[in-house]
Amino acid sequence: VQLVESGGGSVQPGGSLTLSCAASGFTFTSVYMSWVRQAPGKGRETVSVITNNGANTYYADSVKGRFTISRDNAKNTVYLQMNNLKSEDTALYYCVTLRTWSGFGRSKFGYWGQGTQVTVSS
Fold this sequence. Notes:
- The chain is mainly beta.
- 0% of the residues lie in helices and 53% in strands.
């Protein structure tokens, strides 16, 4: 299994970034996908989840209305469009498969990518 994130970088507050995660080694169309972030000195936060067919998406309150998760099952890729970025969005962002999903804080993670750094600073 491989999950390779890309698209991170440095941006000013109010800016935008789009993260991508290319998946391989498993049946992508059968798996819920998520983006999880971890800021320095803080715990992990599940930012967003998308169901296997992309029909349903879920967002943490901290990013609702600013972030959009999507997937292209033909390309085995999941995306996270991040708009109106804030300094508190600074973190290492991981692409993660979900073994189970019962809501935020009640899910079981599967495989993790290596992470891509997002830094929001003026």
